Structure formats: C-alpha cells, structure tokens
C-alpha cells in the first residue's frame, strides 16, 4: 500500500511538472509573439514618421528661405465659399474667421515684421468704390498687400481704383471683369510688377461653376523688407 501510494505521488508530481512546463512554454511563446508584434508596430510607426512628407508654413509645397514670409491664398468659390489668406502659418482672412465678404478682400501686413495691420473687404457689386479708393491711398510704404476676390470683384471698380492697385504691382487688375477670380500679392512702394498674381476669366464655356470660374490658388515666399 505504501509503495502504491508513493507511486501515485510520483505520478502526480510528474504530471504537475509536465503541466507547468507546457504552460510556461505556451506563455513564453505568447509573450514572444506579443513583444514581436509590439516591436513590429514600433518599427512601422518609425518608418511612417520618417517617410511622412514635412509640413511647411501655410501648407505650401516647400520651405521659404530666411528673411522671407510664407504665404498661401485662394479666391472665393462662386458665391458660396469665401477666400482664404494665410501668412506665416496664420490665417488672416477666411470664412471660418468670418471676416470675408463679397467683392475684393484685402489683408495688409507689415513688410518688416510680418505682423497683420488690417483686414477689409469691399463690395464691388452693390457697394461704393469711394471707400476702397480711400483705403488704397492710405496704405503706407513697405506694406505687403494681399487681395482676393469673392463672387464679383470688378463691377464697381473704376480707373482710379484700378490704377492704385496697379501701383501695388498688379498687372491683371486692368483686365479684371465681372465674376473673374483673382488673387494678388504686392506691396506699397514696389518698383516692379509683382510675380504673385493669378487671374481666371469668367467664361460660360470654361466655368467650373454655373456663372463662375474655378477657384484660383497661389503660394510663395515674400521677401522681408530690409532697412
């Protein structure tokens, strides 16, 4: 009886040890798999971060050199979505900011510091051009001027207003017509024509929207004004 009892004890201990060994092996395999998955995910995340394209100010396609201001702007879309003007990663005007309107939208920026001076919009369909002319005449030398149309920016424009905008560096302002889309970046005191200007004519045969052309967008780097 004692021999049989001892044999049972040996068998029980052997079964326990075998069970413990099997469980430990399974647990180790699962731990290895979990750690493997963790390291794999970490490696994939690292690769994703390294291959993600860099983001530049205002979402432009490349970084600006030193002593330049990054900007990006878009005209309005028909009479539904307002224009947007961004400078140095700061949205100056947009529908979200609720500071845009029908006509010509204007942002004035200090050419040395990049600080915002003023934002306005002037209704060139149902408004009066006189306040716009007064505003243009009051712009100080060295000021960066960004403009974008929304809906109609031309009907009330007269020769005086067009000339004042041309003196800021615009070429297309002379030809801006009813419901054309136009964006422009120039400056008071500029000696040459600005390279920053886009203009699409309102043409029923090519319009993207019914009665309006497609949105025009523009980005670039504005040289900082030096003393």
From TrEMBL:
Subcellular location(s) of the protein: Secreted
Domain ILEI/PANDER: 102-189
Top-level taxon of origin: Eukaryota
UniProt organism field: Physeter macrocephalus (Sperm whale)
InterPro entries in the record: FAM3 (IPR039220), ILEI/PANDER_dom (IPR039477), ILEI_FAM3C (IPR039475)
PROSITE patterns assigned: GG_LECTIN
GO terms for cellular component: extracellular region
Name of protein: Protein FAM3C
Transmembrane region(s): none
Keywords: Disulfide bond, Lectin, Secreted, Signal
